């Protein structure tokens, strides 16, 4: 993968291969990745609020990231990269799957968005640092979470903002996110291994060990009539923003 050395390889090869097989269906809102299209507006709501809070911007601004750089790690086919570009950022997307990167680049070009996409492990790519680093639904697919987080934080510029999301490791997530969701086809079979999920407390501790403090944390929940939304319930999934201590 790129010029990654052994210490920089944190994504399991079988995980990258699994998502590579789904690459061509990534932008189909009714396809195998439909769940990502449903949760993405919720993630972007949190990211936008975090941007405004971190840089003291005007919440009414259309392009609050103008003049800033953004990196999305584990970008898939670009579902977060494209909204960040529309918010004004100069965006780079990195993914371990070359197939995902190919689909992402093609879609961005068709959307007339100037986004730099790179295949490989973030720890093995010489790409500098960024004002905003996002990494959503990735760490649960990582073998060595501490090493991966260290590589993520290395990409954060001084005064930068980090936003990450992941499923929680609870009885509810085992039943609903792994069991029921895969059984009914809401997510492709094999998407998640519950044992790889990380709790918010574990996540905050790991971030603290590498010099970051969590600024805000919200659960991502589902309710009839409301759909997926940000809430105080973190039992299934949560998203957080962090900065250097």
What's the CATH superfamily, by name? Vaccinia Virus protein VP39
Class per helix and strand makeup: alpha/beta
**Overall pLDDT score:** 86
Q: What gyration radius follows from the Cα positions, in whole Å?
A: 17 Å
Under CATH, the topology can be stated as: Rossmann fold
Order of helices and strands: HHEHEHEEHEHHEEE
Total individual domains? 1
% residues in beta strands = 15-25%
CATH class descriptor: Alpha Beta
**How does CATH name the architecture?**
3-Layer(aba) Sandwich
Main beta sheet strand tally, sense and closure: 8 strands, mixed
Highlighted features:
single chain, 245 residues, disordered N terminus, Rossmann fold, 8-stranded mixed β-sheet, alpha/beta
General description of the model:
This protein has helices spanning 13-21, 34-55, 81-86, 98-110, 145-154, 171-183, 200-209; strands at 69-73, 90-95, 116-119, 130-136, 156-167, 212-223, 227-231, 237-244. The longest helix has 22 residues, at 34-55. The protein has one domain (6-244): Vaccinia Virus protein VP39 (Rossmann fold). Helices cover 34% and strands 24% of the residues. Residues 1-8 have low confidence and may be disordered. The chain starts with 12 loop residues before the first helix and ends with a strand. An eight-stranded mixed β-sheet has the order 3-2-1-4-5-8-6-7. With 245 residues, the protein is of the alpha/beta class.
